[in-house]
Amino acid sequence: MNVKTTAKHVIDGMPKNVTMDDVIHALYVASKFDRGEQEIKAGKGISDEDARIRLKKWQK
User: Fold this and answer.
1) pLDDT at 59
2) What is the pTM of this model?
3) Is the dihedral of CA 47, 53, 57, 60 positive or negative?
C-alpha cells in the first residue's frame, strides 16, 4: 500500500469524534508497524528468543 492509501485507511477507520492528536498518533503507529514489517521481510528482524534475552538484560 502506498502512503496516501495507508493514511486514508487509518483515518477512515477512526471514529468521527477524534482529535488531530489522535489522527497524528494513529498515523505514527501505522507508519512504525509498516516499517517494522518491511525490516522483517528484509531479514533485519531478530528472533522472539533473542528479543526476550535483550529485554531481560535491559530490565536489570
Assistant:
1) 85
2) 0.72
3) positive
Of 34, 41, 39, which Cα lies nearest the Cα of 5? 34
Query: pLDDT over 90 for what percent of the chain?
Result: 85
Q: In the chain, where are the structural domains located?
A: 3-59
Residues 1 and 9: beta-carbon distance below 8 Å: yes
Residue 58 banded pLDDT, cuts 50, 70, 90:
confident
Cα–Cα distance measured from residue 44 to residue 7, given in angstroms and rounded to the nearest whole number: 25
Decide if 39 contacts 45 (C-beta within 8 A).
yes
Cα separation, 44 vs 32, in Å, equals: 15
